[in-house]
Specification:
Length: 300
């Protein structure tokens, strides 16, 4: 199913100038089936995109139909990491030149990829109308998927937060570095105080031992419990592994190139736990998952 073309929101009950309630026509409403997971971080350089890609690969090995959205709209690099060269990307969709189905590419394993653009600054400041149109198209595209993984940009910009709060689950990636821990707390603070999110999950990357991951979670848990109204669940850790770096240099995923490495085993075990476990927050609203937040009185 393809998404709406430029201007089609006018025919969907959505006014480009609407600042109050945005309504989806009753005929287009449905229950969301795909599990939508936003994977985000307060700081860049913590390995978030590598985690998204390897998790997607591991989910595919478990029989899941996976769509990965590179939501770092202005500085996307998922395609580079995977060694693919898409002809079109999200910039063509935002500008009305292509539909989402036109830019969809095959990734390694069973993944499908929606590639972002790189070096286009205007895409980091989408208007409310552009977000409505884009999320409507994305909502329709995931009909045939089991899992949508959203690889957000790092930080606390409006674009990042919009993608986080539309997902069923939010996974915050952090490394053991003090700056990464501080920025992860800042991200959770914004989610809690400004967006009223009540729950997120923590994944600690590049740890020497499982104990180090637990220590990072404990540090963040102490301050979030004291100062924020948000529950932080410990999702697990990914062990530091030089084979991850080797895979990046070859533009291959460690789960693909070195399936028995210790990092690959972490990804596999994490994917297995997530598939077996019930989603922590599903769904947000009983109809189209993105529309739960588009019907708010304040524009995105």
């Amino acid at each position: 199913m393809t998404g709406p073309r430029r201007g089609d929101w006018k025919n969907m009950g959505v006014s480009p100038t609407a600042k109050n309630v945005i309504q989806l026509p009753r005929a287009g409403r449905r229950r969301a089936r795909a599990r939508v997971v936003a994977i985000t971080s307060g700081k860049g350089g913590v390995g978030k995109t590598n985690i998204v890609a390897n998790l997607g690969f591991a989910f595919g090995n478990l029989g899941q139909r996976v769509l990965v959205l590179d939501a770092d709209l202005g500085l996307g690099n998922l395609d580079v990491l995977l060694g693919i060269a898409p002809k079109f990307n999200l910039s063509h969709v935002i500008h009305g030149e292509k539909q989402l189905s036109d830019i969809l590419v095959d990734g390694p394993g069973r993944m499908k990829i929606l590639p972002a653009s790189s070096g286009i600054q205007e895409l980091t400041q989408l208007t409310h109308e552009q977000k409505v149109q884009f999320l409507t198209a994305l909502d329709q595209l995931v009909d045939d998927m089991d899992m949508l993984l959203i690889d957000t940009a790092a930080g606390i910009s409006t674009n990042v937060m919009d993608f986080n709060v539309t997902a069923h689950e939010i996974i915050v990636v952090v490394s053991p570095e003090p700056t990464a821990i501080t920025d992860a707390y800042a991200l959770m603070k914004v989610l809690s105080l400004k967006y009223a999110e009540k729950r997120c999950q923590l994944l600690v990357n590049m740890v020497a031992t499982p104990r180090e991951g637990e220590d990072v979670f404990r540090q963040l848990g102490l301050v979030t419990e004291r100062f924020l109204d948000i529950q932080v669940d410990y999702l697990g850790c990914i062990l530091n592994d030089e084979k991850v770096t080797r895979g990046v240099k070859h533009q291959r995923l460690v789960c693909d190139l070195f399936p028995q490495s210790r990092a690959s085993r972490c990804f596999t075990q994490l994917a297995e736990r997530m598939v077996k476990a019930s989603p922590t927050s599903r769904p947000k609203g009983n109809t189209n998952f993105f529309w739960h937040h588009l019907v708010q009185s304040t524009p995105l």
